[in-house]
């Protein structure tokens, strides 16, 4: 047990910390959010004295036993309210407006009572009652009148959250901790034990908290199940709401025109969507309004332009291995089809790599001291009023590949991390650089996926920053970007070559053509997912041309003395290829001559039966696919040189380029034969 951190917390934040093992003990018997339990623990157990803690635990358990409403005991509690005439209960209360009667009515989630009249003043004071409801301590009275409404009368409601706090004592206390210690304090306060996590994982866990301190921050985290992606947004703050994957409406999320009432984004600091794969909007314009809001923090409904500060969080599961997704698709593929839109994803400020966070085990939960979570929640909320986004400018300059949206995203992430780690604002150059590197990485992860979804518009992904003192420029990469292994380093067996073609799904993809030659009579057969109906005509043309012109490539052996098996592998799940004729001719020649093509080469372009070269359909995009797949050499038809003006110079410089005029010229150049 790290007693140093415990001692520091109790010395500088006495009465504001609690032992988290107490939360676990109480949590096991009560299905309420952590912030509700710690609200009670903070009142009775905020001490290091074991006697006080034991007495406090007994009190908390008694309060929960007497006042917390278990769903299976709702009838018992209703009976107690009736017999005693009144009772204080702990329950989640949601309020709706009954338009016919022009009154507000409450529903108690666990107690199961509804149509309880709520004074307008109470609703105005606690508007979250209207949007998802809030856990509260409620004084109920019982008075039955024949022919009247519900006999349950709401006398007083006290939401379980702290009043506004003074940040100065927190700033003063923060000065007693190092960056690493304070990071550990934040994790422990959220219930996690930092000593079991690698430093990089700790940064991912802290990044989950950025939406709590940064207004209008849009972030996604996709990864395996059971890594705690949604826990934070559901348990540690009364200021965030978790929307489980499913159908939602513009009225619920943004604005109800008929009631002239703002939705969740105006009432909560964070709106988090769980299980993103299941998100659907009942309204056709739902995604478009969400895009507008994520870009500007405002949206139009009717004649009104409405502003709100809620951050948007999207969490979900990735069911395939990340390596496979990086090579064959993109890391945003779990989103529903109607959201797979580059303009939508470009609004995201960061992508947290959930696959790097280990699946949670019991030992990941801390038994040590941390902030009482409602104290933590109020500290985080108060930090939303501050702005550290200009911290970068004192020490660093951002690289030229960052556009305006990238710069905004990076600044917001840096600001959020500094608010969490240095709330008092006393950070140095090293602290800013650590936050900047992380911010560039998490934004670049979004940009890499945009490059795959939206094409050349998002080509500029080589993010960097320069030190203003030394002018040294440093580039930031993302660990999972290992697509280069699609085209292996070093020579391949004869008869194998890579090409880029548009597939039957309309997207460009990488294809590997593998050829096997055996003694026979000059027959051919085609297999492979990439050799569907679209491709077979081109493969047949390639074989007929090869057989007619094989003597121009090799005098001996002869093509007619062998049988060929051509297998087309689609490496990007792009479907049957439509322009692989020329590459197939080269693969057949390589197989016949038993000579491998040059290492890491991709052949672009196609051909007709008469040997006429067909230029590359989209040169810039094709080169981008080749680069991402690990190509170092490209063979391009001379007729495509005119399209070089569409290709960024930096992209062209990545390759050793060769040009061919006809199919036989392409064969010799691919094989490295002069």
Structure characterization notes:
By secondary structure, this protein is of the alpha/beta class. Helix content is 37%, strand content 22%. It contains 25 helices and 30 strands. It has a 7-stranded mixed sheet. A hairpin with a 5-residue loop joins strand 20 and strand 21 (473-475). The model has no long low-confidence stretch (mean pLDDT 89).
Q: What global shape is seen?
A: elongated
The number of E-state strands comes to 30
- In order across it, which strands form the biggest sheet? 24-25-23-22-26-29-30
Name the average pLDDT.
89
CA-to-CA gap between the ends? Answer: 71 Å
Structural class: alpha/beta
Helical residues, percent: 25-40%
Strand content: 15-25%
Rg, rounded, reads 32 Å
- Major β-sheet profile: 7 strands, mixed
Low-confidence segments, given as residue ranges, are none
Question: How many helical stretches?
Answer: 25
């Amino acid at each position: 047990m790290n007693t140093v951190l415990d001692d520091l917390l109790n010395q500088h934040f006495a009465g504001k910390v609690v032992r988290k093992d107490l939360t676990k003990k109480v949590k096991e018997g009560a299905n309420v959010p952590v912030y509700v339990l710690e609200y009670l623990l903070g009142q009775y157990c905020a001490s290091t004295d074991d006697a006080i803690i034991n007495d406090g635990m007994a009190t908390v358990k008694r309060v929960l036993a007497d006042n917390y409403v278990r769903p299976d005991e709702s009838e018992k509690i209703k009976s107690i309210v009736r017999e005693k005439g009144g009772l204080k209960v702990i329950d989640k209360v949601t309020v709706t407006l009954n338009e016919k009667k022009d009154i507000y009515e409450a529903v108690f989630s666990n107690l199961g009572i509804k149509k309880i009249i709520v004074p307008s003043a109470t609703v105005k004071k606690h508007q979250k009652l209207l949007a998802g409801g809030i856990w509260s301590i409620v004084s109920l009275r019982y008075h039955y009148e024949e022919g009247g409404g519900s006999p349950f009368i709401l006398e007083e409601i006290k939401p379980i959250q702290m009043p506004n706090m003074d940040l100065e004592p927190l700033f003063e206390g923060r000065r007693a901790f190092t960056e690493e210690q304070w990071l550990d304090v934040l994790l422990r306060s959220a219930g996690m034990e930092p000593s079991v996590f690698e430093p990089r994982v700790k940064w991912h866990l802290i990044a989950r908290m950025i939406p709590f301190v940064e207004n209008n921050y849009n972030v996604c985290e996709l990864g395996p199940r059971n890594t705690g992606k949604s826990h934070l947004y559901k348990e540690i703050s009364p200021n965030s709401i978790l929307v489980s994957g499913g159908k939602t409406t513009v009225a619920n999320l943004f604005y109800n025109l008929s009631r002239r009432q703002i939705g969740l984004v105006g009432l909560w600091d964070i709106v988090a969507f769980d299980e993103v794969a299941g998100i659907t909007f009942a309204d056709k314009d739902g995604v478009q309004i969400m895009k507008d809001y994520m870009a500007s923090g405002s949206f139009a409904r009717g004649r009104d332009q409405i502003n709100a500060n809620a951050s948007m969080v999207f969490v979900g599961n990735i069911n395939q291995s990340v390596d496979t997704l990086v090579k064959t698709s993109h890391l945003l593929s779990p989103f529903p089809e109607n959201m797979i839109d580059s303009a939508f994803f470009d609004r995201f400020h960061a992508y947290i790599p959930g696959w790097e966070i280990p699946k949670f085990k019991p030992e990941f939960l801390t038994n040590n001291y941390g902030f009482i979570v409602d104290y933590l929640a109020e500290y985080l909320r108060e930090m939303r009023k501050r702005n550290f986004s200009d911290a970068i400018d004192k020490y660093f300059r951002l690289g030229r590949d960052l556009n305006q949206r990238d710069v905004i995203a990076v600044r917001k992430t840096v600001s959020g991390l500094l608010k969490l780690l240095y709330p008092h604002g006393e950070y140095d150059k090293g602290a800013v650089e650590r936050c900047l590197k992380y911010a560039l990485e998490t934004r670049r992860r979004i940009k890499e996926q945009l490059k795959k979804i939206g094409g050349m518009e998002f080509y500029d992904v080589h993010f960097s920053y320069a030190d203003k003192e030394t002018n040294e420029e440093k580039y930031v990469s993302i660990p999972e970007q290992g697509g280069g292994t699609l085209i292996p380093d070093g020579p391949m067996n004869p008869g194998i070559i890579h090409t880029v073609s548009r597939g039957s799904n309309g997207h460009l993809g990488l294809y590997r053509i593998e050829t096997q030659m055996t003694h026979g009579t000059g027959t051919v057969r085609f297999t492979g997912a990439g050799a569907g109906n679209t491709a077979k005509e081109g493969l047949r043309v390639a074989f007929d041309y090869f057989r007619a012109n094989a003597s121009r490539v090799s005098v001996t052996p002869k093509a007619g003395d062998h049988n060929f098996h051509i297998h087309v592998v689609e490496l990007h799940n792009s479907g049957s290829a439509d322009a692989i004729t020329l590459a197939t001719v080269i693969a057949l020649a390589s197989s016949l001559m038993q000579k491998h093509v040059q290492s890491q080469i991709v052949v672009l372009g196609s051909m007709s039966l008469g040997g006429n070269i067909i230029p590359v359909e989209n040169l810039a995009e094709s080169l981008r696919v080749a680069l991402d797949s690990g190509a170092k050499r490209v063979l391009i038809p001379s007729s495509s040189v005119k399209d070089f003006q569409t290709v960024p110079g930096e992209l062209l410089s990545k390759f050793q380029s060769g040009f061919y005029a006809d199919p036989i010229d392409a064969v010799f150049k691919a094989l490295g034969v002069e």
